[in-house]
Amino acid sequence: MEIKKSIRVILADDHLLVRRGIRKLLEKSSSIHVVGEAGTGMAALCLVQELKPDVLLLDIEMPDMKGTQVALELRKKHVPVSIVIFSACDDPHFIEETLRTGVDAYLTKSETPTRIREAIRRVSRKYAAIVPLLIFVFSKIGWTLVQAGNGLSLAVN
After folding, report:
1. Counted domains in the chain
2. Which candidate, 60, 85, 133, 147, has a CA 20 to 30 Å from the CA of 97?
3. Cβ contact 99:107 at 8 Å
4. Residue 124 gets which letter from DSSP?
């Protein structure tokens, strides 16, 4: 019998109330365990390097540095963490720019709890985490989703 490893997550958002709510939402799943929280980008960088989570759920707007800066720094240092940007912004061009920084997924804060948990599960397994909003967004900017192995890839039209 195979024992399932829980997915270790760090939450990074400058709003304590948001972090607490997301923690409760995520921990309703027995397969997801929040191992740390950060209120700034710098704290997120330090925690990821210290705690070595599977997934970083990262707000785009942090007081000291943007979530994309955090993501770029982690990628530059080759830190093996899946990064999910969690933002209120649903502008297609902003999402496109954000995805180009090497993040694994982009979720809006209007997503359902089920979709957020599923996206975390998928990126932790290195699968694409595409939600319906992104399918719409990609179509608006001329991208198409194509099946690629266990996940999806983007093709520019």
Report:
1. 1
2. 147
3. no
4. H
Helix, coil or strand: residue 47: helix
* pLDDT tens string 64-105: 999 999 999 999 999 999 999 999 888 877 887 888 888 888
d(CA 147, CA 151): 6
Across the strands, what pairs with 15? Answer: none
The phi, psi pair for 35, rounded to 5°, reads -100, -10
Supply the CATH number for residue 69's domain: 3.40.50.2300
Answer for the pair 86, 59: CB distance below 8 angstroms, yes or no: yes
C-alpha angle with apex 38: 36 to 43, nearest 5 degrees?
Answer: 110
pTM here?
0.80
**22 and 109 in contact (C-beta within 8 Å)?**
no
Domain that holds residue 77: 7-156
How many other CB atoms are found less than 10 A from the CB of residue 27? Answer: 13
- For residue 1, tell me if it sits in a domain: no
